[in-house]
Design a protein that fits this description.
2 domains, 14 strands, TIM Barrel, Beta-Lactamase, single chain, alpha/beta, 8-stranded mixed β-barrel
């Protein structure tokens, strides 16, 4: 095809394009490009039908330098796709000359339009969401029904992908709304699980744990995961941190209260600000989710900035070199061992070797080691023999409301 001069009809000013994953989805873009390229067409478009009788362009794939972009809007009556949907034009047009409806459209003469394909994009509920179309500036008499079938196949794949992404977006919105409703309702509650000394089984402190609605159906991890997927992850994390710090005043004097704090909340300064606002005593900030932290130096500095108001612990998931290295840099007051080690420590030499390595490291700066997940006396004895000073788990106590935890620490049995 030789070069041709073309002029597009006027479009309304660009509106914000589709947001989220649908607008930038590589699969949809790939289907559009493949359909256009396979049939040797010059311009590919996906548009959706919107309010006010308009079509909004959502995706563009063109071999030409055209002033087309997602967000441009045009009245539906001025588009081939609307007339195809209404049955005034066929889905495949090799030459618009014989079709009065095509000749009445300004774009036919302005571009000009030669060959044209348009297939409605139908969702699983039967809704016609938009159209999948492509065109060239010159007629193509060689087009066959097989070409249309190929184009329809690409359109069907695009429609299925759009359907999936719309459903996922709706689910995310429902999830986001559920989390926002929880914020408004102050539905995050804090339980406290006692931590005991292994030497004499006496209580030494508690760990503050966030609990959410429908706790029997969905774990706290699921709530945090949902919040992360909707962009509310850090907000929910700080809600839990603030809630935990507020409960520290219920812990009797002489006992510590551990508050979990994800690395990004520590680096941002939000945890330090929360501590300074409450001025609670005997707080231990337990660092979590630090593996993904890109700037370890900034993390170490942020932890040091917390130390005037709280002690520091590191929640070690396993005993990787990275976590051991961070512990050596921070020199935390406590290191917490993952419960997987407690399950195996009484019978597995490898688990005992890992525990011994952590204990030896922490002794370099007179820190203490807490073993999570202690459920049997044999596990507690094995940990004590390896030099672990504290234990946490169902052998000693389950997570409980604040008042019950305070009574437990004071030796009051309900």
């Amino acid at each position: 095809m030789g070069d041709m001069t073309f002029i597009l009809p006027e479009f309304e000013a660009s509106a914000p394009p589709l947001d989220g994953e649908l607008a930038s989805d590589p699969q949809i873009a790939g289907f559009l490009h493949s359909a256009r390229d396979h049939l040797g067409l010059e311009i590919g478009l996906i548009g959706r039908w919107i309010d006010d009788d308009m079509r909004e362009i959502t995706h563009v794939d063109s071999a030409l330098d055209l002033p087309l972009e997602p967000g441009l809007r045009q009245h539906r009556d001025e588009t081939y796709c609307w007339h195809v949907l209404n049955g005034d034009l066929p889905e495949m047009i090799a030459d618009p000359a014989p079709y009065p409806a095509a000749q009445a459209l300004g774009i036919t003469h302005a571009l000009p339009v030669g060959a044209h394909f348009s297939v409605p994009l139908r969702l699983s509920d039967g809704t016609v969401w938009g159209s999948f179309c492509a065109m060239s500036r010159q007629p193509d008499p060689t087009l066959t029904p097989r070409d249309l079938a190929i184009f329809e196949s690409f359109a069907a794949m695009a429609a299925e992908r759009i359907d999936t992404l719309i459903a996922e977006a709706a689910l995310r919105e429902q999830t986001r709304q559920r989390i926002e409703d929880m914020f408004e309702g102050d539905a995050v509650t804090i339980f406290q699980q006692p931590i005991h000394l292994l030497a004499d089984s006496q209580p030494a402190g508690v760990e503050c744990l966030a609990r959410f609605p429908d706790v029997n159906k969905r774990s706290p991890g699921a709530w945090f995961g949902d919040a992360e997927s909707t962009g509310l992850g850090e907000e929910l994390e700080m809600t839990a941190v603030n809630g935990a710090i507020e409960t520290v005043t219920s812990v009797p004097d002489g006992f510590f209260a551990m508050v979990k704090a994800p690395a990004r909340c520590v680096v941002s300064g939000a945890v330090r600000a929360a501590l300074e606002a409450e001025t609670a005593a005997n707080v231990v900030v337990t660092l979590t989710q630090y593996a993904a932290a890109e700037d370890k130096l900034a993390l170490v500095q942020a932890l040091q900035a917390i130390r005037p108001t709280a002690r520091v612990a590191i929640d070690m998931v396993g005993t990787s070199y990275a976590s051991m290295q961070l512990a050596a840099l921070v020199k935390p007051d406590f290191v917490k061992l993952d419960m997987a080690l407690a399950r195996n420590v009484a019978s597995d030499p490898a688990a005992r070797a890992l525990v011994s390595a952590v204990v030896a490291l922490v002794r370099e700066w007179d820190g203490a080691v807490i073993a999570e997940g202690i459920e049997e006396s044999a596990q507690a004895e094995a940990m004590k023999a390896l030099g672990v000073s504290h234990g946490q788990g169902y052998l000693f106590a389950r997570p409980m409301p604040m008042v019950a935890a305070a009574q437990h620490l004071a030796g009051i049995v309900a």
